[in-house]
Amino acid sequence: xxxxxxxxxxxxxxxxxxxxxxxxxxxxxxxxxxxxxxxxxxxxxxxxxxxxxxxxxxxxxxxxxxxxxxxxxxxxxxxxxxxxxxxxxxxxxxxxxxxxxxxxxxxxxxxxxxxxxxxxxxxxxxxxxxxxxxxxxxxxxxxxxxxxxxxxxxxxxxxxxxxxxxxxxxxxxxxxxxxxxxxxxxxxxxxxxxxxxxxxxxxxxxxxxxxxxxxxxxxxxxxxxxxxxxxxx
Length: 233
Description:
The protein has 7 helices and 2 strands; from the N terminus they run H-H-E-E-H-H-H-H-H. It is mainly alpha-helical.
């Protein structure tokens, strides 16, 4: 049984719950805000410090501002005498942006250009309806490979220099114009021998050039094609 004064049903319990609660805005007690200086940093101060750190190149902050910095990473090297040496990431020269190096890049370019030379050799035989001698085509490609490797290794790492750009410009113009001349003026046997290396050199030199030099080269070859009165078909 319910004790005296205890709500007996849901209505009385709801009325008891509302008793003492604020039901009108006039019942809200009014008070002045605290004028004391806050003990901790305000959000505005934290945001200002964070902005200053970002401007000074410290995105992770430091211990004074409350922002923790990322853990440092070091590499331990075992010396031949058994001692250990710590190598910091800044001083570790093994990790570079160019993992394969200049020779690796030259080898990659040379393999690609050799496949282009092989394809052009097959296409020119097919154009003149000649029997494709795969052994001879592979042999010519292997002979061209070291020559291309020496050229690419020497010039590719210096391709950004101005003199190298002018060299590629002259090479592309000479290879393109002579390819057009030999394809229209010489016998088919001479074309079959000269078209693959000339086409490979032309494509490679255009790839190595900057856009203005490449456009100038292509425009010059197009002018020579128009001046010679040659046709595509």
